[in-house]
Amino acid sequence: MKTLKDVISLKIKTSESEGVIFHGEGQQGDYITLELRKAKLVLNLNLGTNQLGSIFGHTSVTTGSLLDDHHWHSILIERHGRNINLTLDRHMQHFRTNGEFDYLDLDYEITFGGMPFSGKPSSNSRKNFKGCMESINYNGNNITDLAKRKKLEPSNVGNLSFSCVEPHTVPVFFNATNYLEVPGRPSQDLFSVSFLFRTWNPNGLLLFSNFADDLGNVEIDINEGKVSVHINVTQVKKNRIDISS
Fold first, then answer.
1. pLDDT tens, 186-225?
2. Is the pLDDT of residue 152 over 80?
3. CATH 2.60.120.200-classified regions of the chain
4. Which residues contact 233 (CB under 8 A, 6 or more apart)?
5. Residue 209 and residue 198: Cα distance in Å, rounded?
6. 114 Cβ contact list (under 8 Å, min separation 6)
7. Comparing C-alpha atoms, which of 33, 30, 29, 35 is closest to residue 12?
8. Which fold has domain 2-149?
9. 25, 38 in Cβ contact below 8 A?
10. Are strands 104-105 and 2-3 parallel, antiparallel or unpaired?
11. What share of the chain is helix, strand, coil (3-state, %, to 5)?
């Protein structure tokens, strides 16, 4: 199809920071790709590039952050020629595409949740979307409803489940005055801990533990936006190890 206007809307929910939400391309070099990169929303669009290379149509716009929080986020793309409104959770960004063309010429399928392997370097380096989508609407077509009723022709509706599985993780909120204390494991010569965290604060103590028998302690903190691990051992010559990342 060759369109002068496009209206695309959908909602997403994911705990993954990378993934292609939808993709379409054409033989004239046109393409549109909406994806998550580093938990931000990226729209790549090209309404055409001429063979001489003097008209370069690639346009990339990034918006939002921390979209891998497993909450619903609404996306709306409105295009009229080269004028684009990209709205994420009611925050609208207006821009104009590069190049001189106004029509989006897509000869191939539009894919939601990933992009087909085309042999191009750009396709195999991108992850498919992992999460939930709802209310997918493409130029007046309710894609979610059509997919559920298997009315999309031609289509390859893979192993889709029309429900959204909730993650089993339980987050804990710390307000800089509370803390969580758990019992240690005596007579263990292995110390192992793992956790995910998210904060706007550049400084803060993440974890502290004393070793048994006054052998020292371990401390994990954020210092000016960097995570540092400090291990103090009382009975050896080199008694302090500091790791920063």
1. 777 788 888 888 888 999 999 999 888 888 899 999 999 9
2. no
3. 2-149
4. 211, 215, 216, 239, 240, 241
5. 21
6. 19, 20, 23, 126, 127, 128, 129
7. 35
8. Jelly Rolls (2.60.120)
9. no
10. antiparallel
11. 5, 40, 55
